[in-house]
Write a structure and sequence with these properties.
The structure is a homodimer of 333-residue chains. The first copy, chain A, is α/β, with parallel strands linked by helices and 333 residues long. Chain A contains twelve helices and eleven strands.
Chain lengths: 333, 333
């Protein structure tokens, strides 16, 4: 686990989009975001207090999180100065960059000398077990997509927030680097060795109270040729009771696969239910999350209503219309 | 690729079963098996010429293959003497042991000094790409099992032999350590990082002649909670035209999962076809391979006939009755 709360490092982010990881932390775990650290020329602003390292330490921050993409895939000398100073100030460092912190000899040396931790959340830090398929206590919900990057993480985080607001027991379980940085822990599933994928998801979603819901972050798609094995392991390791179908209806082809059309929601439902029932016979699709970001308000409302009608299941865009209907479905499960 | 042919190291194998990797090489690639090296107390015998290192070199052997399991998971001092001498004699070493050759400092030092290679076939030696889903030329066949360890590798190797005997173009593509040692190359799929699994299988089965068949070694099972993600990646990376269902009908539960009953052949067929058609719309099940090792001859014949009748597909036990019917199905595809 990464120690919280965080100082969010925005560096010299050229614009707001480059700081989307930091934005995600601030949006979903504001209690983890003590302040922001911006360098000269930074074009992003999260609306948090600007702090230097000493101020952030005084305010209680324990980890400096690199919440920004690095230009050219390289940790620049300007960044390096701040990261080294942060270690010396007593911060751990956490990052989801491709360019790993642990591959920088100076950061490794200073971290060792100061006794601080370097967290590269792209890389597993745990020796996961082989999955056992054993039935666990508690309930689990997983969003499965018609494609990658259709809003599965957003759906799970929005549902968690709504469930907690209603007094339900719910925990978002991160399976990707952004989710891990947001919550401070999880499994970087796409970097786990094949034989241990399902076991890693079992490890992530252990026995719990009978009325507790794990909201497992989805990955990939059963219909995505590059990543479907990851999705499969997530379903069989997670053993969800409730499945949510996630769709982005304006997409012309599968992400990164120009020759592949996205499947229909019907095809996804018909494939995922028998797969999920291999490990959990009561698994069923309980709702649909539609990402309507490329539609007008009127188009979005009409589309969502049409999906509900066609599929006979509650549907919503959790960003635009809130996740209430999906939470209702879990409450009624 | 591992340089062939081999000297097969049987060490101090207590019995024939402990040398089953060496047996597989001798059975399926006899042209790769120049001789056997047995230490004092060896209880296994492949019926090959016993050779010392110099004799095997003179006979053309280029790699010493550890074809035996090591007791206690440790490379003993007695083994070590032979392995070091083999490097000095000019052999490469290849092994599928959990205890990696590359983790033995003395072997690494001698290999570097002599310029020889250490092949640990459990560990990928290639940086595999992300799968593209691009349609490749040539034909592909994959056996998918109701469970793990039901005879998928045997089926593919037996089909390859029969196809070559008939003058068909066929290549067995190894995806596990035994298959890699038998053929000298392949992908240790269970050790590949999640994001690259399907890409590794695409890499293994590239464009080929229109009338060439890749016989891809199957792994795991879509119904096995621990390994189904590996199977999924194999189907979407391999993009098979022809699927063979593989079954061991006397098994009481899934291997290693006492609470899971194996699926019916109908359930496997109904799940695998839509999955395979995501990447290859013409994919279909063309036959069934039944492992009847725990049945009498009469029971086996009756069972196979019953499966054919029930499923409306050619069925055989390739070990007991030969793979001819399955090869006929590919010839007619």
């Amino acid at each position: 686990m990464i120690r919280t709360p965080y100082l969010l490092f925005l560096g010299d982010a050229p614009d707001q989009l480059a700081a989307k990881v930091a934005q995600g932390i601030k949006d979903w775990r504001p209690e983890n975001a003590v302040g922001q650290y911006r360098m000269q020329g930074c074009g992003a602003d999260l609306g948090l207090a600007d702090m230097d390292l000493a101020e952030a330490r005084a305010a209680g921050a324990k980890t400096l999180v690199v919440g920004v993409a690095n230009r050219g895939g390289v940790i620049s000398p300007e960044w390096k100065k701040v990261l080294v100073a942060a270690l010396e100030e007593g911060f751990d460092l956490a990052s989801g960059l491709h360019n790993l912190l642990r591959e920088e000899p100076d950061l490794v040396a200073v971290a060792e000398a100061t006794g601080r931790a370097l967290h590269d959340v792209r890389v597993p830090e745990v020796d996961y077990p082989i999955a056992t398929g054993r039935k666990r206590t508690g309930r689990r919900c997983l969003a499965v997509g018609t494609d990658c990057s259709v809003g599965k993480m957003y759906t799970a985080l929005a549902m968690e927030r709504e469930m907690r607001a209603r007094g339900m027991k719910a925990t978002f379980r991160a399976t990707g680097q952004t989710g891990i940085l947001i919550t401070g822990g999880g499994v970087p599933l796409d970097a786990v060795v094949a034989d241990f994928m399902a076991g890693a998801v079992e490890w992530l979603t252990p026995d719990n109270d009978a009325d507790h819901w794990d909201l497992i972050e989805g990955q990939g798609s059963l219909f995505h040729a590059s990543y479907s094995g990851v999705t499969m392991a997530l379903i069989h390791g997670g053993a969800p009771d409730a499945l949510i179908l996630a769709d982005e209806p304006t997409r012309a082809h599968m992400r990164g696969l120009p020759d592949y059309a996205p499947p229909s929601l019907e095809a996804l439902r018909d494939l995922v239910e028998p797969i999920a029932r291999v490990v959990n016979p009561q698994a069923r699709v309980v709702g649909i999350s539609v990402n309507t970001q490329h539609m007008s308000e009127a188009e979005a409302a009409a589309h969502v209503a049409g999906v509900e009608d066609r599929m006979g299941l509650p549907a919503t865009d959790p960003f635009r219309f809130g996740p209430g209907k999906l939470v209702d479905a879990l409450a009624d499960f």
